[in-house]
Structure formats: structure tokens, C-alpha cells
Predict the 3D structure of the following.
Amino acid sequence: MRKLLILATALVTSGELQAQPSELGFSPADLSAGPFEFETAEQ
Amino acid sequence: MASGFRRPFSLAFLPSGDALISERGVGLRLVRDATGIRGETMLVDAPVDGGPPRGAGRNGGVHEVVVHPDFESNGQVYYTYNANGEANADGQATSMVTLARALYLDDGRLIAPEILFQGEAVTGQSGSRLSFAPDGYLYMTTGAPFGDEAQSNTNVYGKVLRLTEDGEIPNDNPFASVPGARGEVFTLGHRDQLGLTSHPVSGAVLAVEHGPNGGDEVNRILPGRNYGWPQFSFGRSYEGPRHSERPLGPDTEQPLILWLPSIGPTGLTFYSGDRIPQWTGNLFVGSARRGEIPGTGGLERIVLNDNLEELRRESLLGPLRARIRDVREGPDGLLYVITDDADPVLLRISPLEN
């Protein structure tokens, strides 16, 4: 077993924030800034 | 990169690689080249012409969209929505869960819509999902209103329904011949089930269900079984006390998979592709948030044995702080998720080695 590396790539975005951090209770990531790389657990 | 999503909820790929996406309560949108294989991904600005009617209230309007298994030859698209009903005797707005079918044209329009099924007018219902199972029938989840309707087979809410592709009642449905019962009912005792899928090999039908505050569960849907809600739940009320003294009754079907605390499960699929061979056969569940904490959603990967018993699980995509609403396999054998919340997106999940 070994760890897997994956990419998360945004293909379509909202184009603008539809809620502010104060409304959400957290600071959202900019998902259009990817692709984002992740290392998974051992598969 | 295309932009302009509002409240995306359901993702349905077409064989061409385009996709229909429901914007909850609003309508359907078309994404050209949704897998990005041609580098021409584009969200069409206007809602799909001929799509479901706009809804009223928090959960009104469209929820689910799927394509018929023989879409390439028949062009049929199925969708669910909560149709606006008359105000009840107390002046409260009502709605009726509705299943409809329309014909998709290559220019992105839907024509010849027809209502195949419609439930009773109720207040406080939630979302619905669809799955064409290998047995040839169409399964449909319905949300439970605030009362105990989920325990009665005389209404269609808080249920999994089983229909023919024309919306008719199969003769072998468990309550098809029971006087006074709704023959569409296949299982009872559900809360809000926002994910539904079928195992690609065995044909087992699985639904994922929100508990009240914890007690989210994946259930194997078996004819005539009762899954407990609202009499029994592993969850707690939002004020803290247990929802029920015991999580299961003597005749309650146990969940296959359970989450305590809640993950806000939305979207459910088996991965059957070979582009990520380490994941072939795994079950994926979208998560809106964990333990009632905003910004903690992600994607759950669950490894099951041949009896659908859980072996291990893993949480993915947490650093994105995304509220995942659906997860589906694309025609290219990769996984795709859609998110709502601050910045709704369509995300492609691919192995880095490729």
C-alpha cells in the first residue's frame, strides 16, 4: 500500500464570493486558485 | 474558466462530456465540456430552456437531475422539484415533491416535459434524489416533513420510492396491493436523504440520510423495511438531548455506515472507473460540514467489502473548506464534485500521476 497524490481542479466557479466571511463564520478558500494537491492516506 | 453558479446541488454528465447542473430552487444550467478535456469548459449563462419551474421558499423548486441510462438513444432527462402548492388552512405555504421527464436537444434545450409523479401537498419538506438501478427501476428519495409522516405508508414523504421509468408503480412494490397505502413507497422511516446510488455490480441501492444532529447514515434500501425516523435515531436534537432513548427499534433496519457527529452528507456515488484504480469500488459521500462547524466540509471515501460492510474510511479535500453538494463519476472515469457556500465550483479530482 502507498499514499496517492490527487489534484482538485476547479473547472467552473461562481466568479464572485456569494457570502462574506462574517456571514460564513470562516474565511473561504479561493477555489479558483488551484489546482490543489493532496496526499491521501495509504490506499 | 466559466463562472456564475448559484446554489448548485446536482450534477448529471451527458455522454458528450457536457453536464447539466441543478441550481437548487432556480433551474438547470448547462456546462459545455464539463470534464475540461477540450479545454473549452463553459457555463451557459441562461438557465436551460424548458427546464423545471422556479420554486418558492427555502426548499422550493428543482433539486435533482439525472439522465436515463439509455440517454444516447432516447435523450431523456429526469428531474425532481418541489412544486408550489396552495396555502394550507393555517396559511402556511405547501409544496408537492414532483418527478418529471423531458427530452434534451443538442442545442441545450429541454422539450416535451411531462410530470410522471407528484406527492401530496405538505409543509416543511426537503430535497430529493434519483437513481436508475440495474433492476431497471427508478428509485427516488423524499424528505420528511416535521411531523411523523415518515412512518406512514399512506403518504410519500420520508421514503424511498420505486417507480418504473414512466412513473408507474411496479407490481412487486411492497405496498402496491395494500389498501390505502401509496404503492410507490419502497421503504419508510427516513429523514432527509440527499444522496442515492446503486452498486454497479450487485445492484444494491444505497441512500445517505441526515440525522438531526449527528446520526447521519448510509442505508441499504431493502423492500418494505423501516429505518426508524422519527421514532429512532442515533442523533441528538440541536439543543443537545438524544433524539430517542434508543437508537434502534426492534424492527428498525440498521445503517451500513454511521457518522457521529454529523457530516451533513449530500451526494453519494460508487466509483467504478479505472483512472484512479486505488479507488475502484469505493463509496464516496459529499460532506457539507462536520459537527455543525462551518467551513469543515469535504469528501468521504469509504472502503467496503463485498457484503457492503465498512472496512475503513478517509476524509478528503478538507483544506478547501468547501461545502460539497454532489459527487459523481464523469464519462472520463474521474471524480467530480460541486460545492455551494461562498464560492460554488465544479471540481475535478484526478490522480497526480496522470
User: Anything to note?
Assistant: Chain B has a mean pLDDT of 94. Chain B has one domain: 56-349.
